[in-house]
Amino acid sequence: MTLLALDQLTVKRGPCPVVNGVSLSVDRGEVVGLIGPNGAGKTTLFRGALGLISHSGTSSLAQLSPADRARAAAWMPQAREIAWPIAVETLVMLGRVPHLAGGQRPSERDHAAVAEAIADMGLVGFETRPATDLSGGEQARVLIARTLAQDCPLIVADEPIAGLDPAHQIATMDLFARIARQGKSVLVSLHDLGLAARHCSRLILMHQGRIVADGTPRIVLTPKNLHDVFGISAHLTEGPDGMIFQPLEVLR
Ligand SMILES: Nc1ncnc2c1ncn2[C@@H]1O[C@H](COP(=O)(O)OP(=O)(O)OP(=O)(O)O)[C@@H](O)[C@H]1O
After folding, report:
1. Could you tell me the pTM of the whole model?
2. What ipTM does this complex have?
3. Where in this chain does the record put each ABC transporter domain (predicted)?
4. Architecture of 2-250 per CATH?
5. Ligand 1: residue whose CA is nearest its atom 28
């Protein structure tokens, strides 16, 4: 079953399309890594797909009402600003808002979803702390937990693991894989191609607003694509428990 379908999605900034005729679909059970250099259009693609900015072409999510969309997809933006010193568990509970009727108090199920998300992100013991007092990486984990608590078929996350320490990066990518095994999907932008190669079932490579490759990490991370899009060389090999990718040199 398709959780997201884009058809010729185009987003212009001024006269220039920064997302240019992108068509793709995300099915159940996938961890899709969206990769590409700075300015490739990844964030703009997400925002267009979610209907947060004006676009041409179609997105299945953008066609939904805001309430239905919030139950279909959980969005974690790149900006990590937490504006108020609210308790961690209160912030994570905001992920449950799409499931609450107006004015309704959180049910046991909502509290259970929040507790599970907090545990999944290694935040047990942080529940009552003001979120603004946490470190940058801890705040990022709280925002991922809020996204998990939303309990949607699709998670769309813009560089969610940037700034996390290695153990939490790997644990978060493992968690995404577990979510995919439950039949949900994760569409995630990443700059760490090593983690992308190892933990994503599929990669979509963007360059100058267009998709230039879409497939398994081995199909996408070819020497030619790495040269043409990132201007690097790299070593890619199949290890005993997954792909191993090591960037080597800048080529231009
Ligand atoms: N509001 C805006 N006005 C003008 N240009 C914009 C605007 N927002 C984005 N752009 C341009 O669109 C292009 C794509 O930006 P986008 O943020 O989608 O890239 P990205 O792939 O997410 O990059 P990064 O990896 O650096 O986060 C960039 O060249 C950016 O300068």
Report:
1. 0.94
2. 0.96
3. 4-233
4. 3-Layer(aba) Sandwich (3.40)
5. 39
